Predict the 3D structure of the following.
Amino acid sequence: MDNMVEYIMVIAIVIIGVGMVLVIGTPVVDKVKGNLEFRDSEDFLLTLDKTVKEVSNEGEGSSRIIKSSGGDFRINEKENLIEFYQRTSVFDYLTRKLNGNVIFIAGTDSKCYEKDMNNDGIIDLVMENSYLTVVLSKVNGTYNTAGNIIVMKNQNSSITPVDSSIIIDGNPSTSSGTGFSYLERVGNEIPKCRARFFMNSTIDYDIYYTLYSGADFLVVDVRNIG
């Protein structure tokens, strides 16, 4: 009888031990799998970026076939990009990594919406995260880039720019003309907000204002000058 009790106790100890390995080991296994999936997606996106450049340089009729990696990939037509979503802690929360044309963003604390923020009866474009709120003009028709940025504010202070003009090649006339502006994506809990302003002046160009999750600064790009 004593031998039977000892045998049962040994079995019980073994079962408990296996259970602890599973409970403690599962998060580790998940993290390893997440890292592998992330690396595969990074390689795919970098390869895709390189291939797009090659095809573009080769001209009309050029093509490639690329095998994608597994995971949650989404095509964002409004922002002209491909997104990969993953819910694992590969990066520290609210950090960013730039590798060529590939941007990695950890966190989704950004929200983009339209609202009259200064009570002047005109709807504005609003980009917000946990650190910064940026209010931009919503335009459709004649406008001056001097008024593109209405206000930028954080928890402690706000800045109202006197002049946010975009001037091309030192020519002041390029700061005004006709065009429009809009938020490329509206919603909550997204990785970044971006607003596009199109300007048709003595020269045409686009202005992109981007607020990333966790960023306490606004990124301004001028593109497609021509």
